[in-house]
Specification:
mainly alpha; 3 domains; two-stranded antiparallel ribbon; two-stranded antiparallel sheet; flat
Length: 280
Amino acid sequence: MKKPRNPQPNHKPLKEQVRARPGLAAVYFTLRLLVIVALVPQALKGNFENVFLCILTLILFTLPSLIERAIRIEIPDTLEIIILLFIFAAEILGEIRAYYIQYPFWDTMLHTINGFLCAAIGFSLLDILNRNEKLKFSLSPLYLSVVAFCFSMTIGVLWEFFECAMDQFFLLDMQKDTIVHSISSVMLDPAGGNTPTAIHDIVDTIVVTGDGTQHALGLGGYLDIGILDTMKDLLVNFIGAVVFSTIGYFYVKNRGKGKFAPQFIPTVMPEEAHSTQNDT
């Protein structure tokens, strides 16, 4: 006779699991409508790159529910709504509405949230395995937190690799540039040695192309090519990862007690709930 599995802490009753979630449904409907409203004028203008972004956003909106069905987990409403808002803020507001340019904090905010969410996902992957009676191991709260942190930082680094590749091969400028007024490089050493040579109080940069044409950029300084943006993104990703890893540590330490952490940690869906969901 099979031993029944231990119930997940803070798990919703079966009836609540399978019934409609009106708050989440309202968010889905509103965001999809806003994406369609953004798509129509872009299509009329013939801006097919933005049309593709809108279609991609609609596809990404379906991923949480597809993942729930595919691997039989339940994503908390709070986490799912934040993921949907994150996608909308990054693709529609950030790219199409140019919030990345209009609001300098926009990219920083999204990377911080990304660090938090990825830590939550990494934490959940191990936490679900840790509660599975078929697996004969038990991971400490500290170990779970460290893995969640490392998972989040790995995703952040891979994303920066992707941004750099897109900039190098397609000149998309995903790594937004920064204006700086001082630079220091060993390449400026007049002796050709390894001594950093600095230039201060830079007020403009002149670019000379292969045909001898000079372009004064008029940006008020030197154009840093993405490195400061990358370091800032990784720093705020680090902060978001540390915040959730700390929350996850105390969540496991207190044996699943508390109301905040469970809003961001997916749980395994009971077999009967999964069967009922597939039948509906």
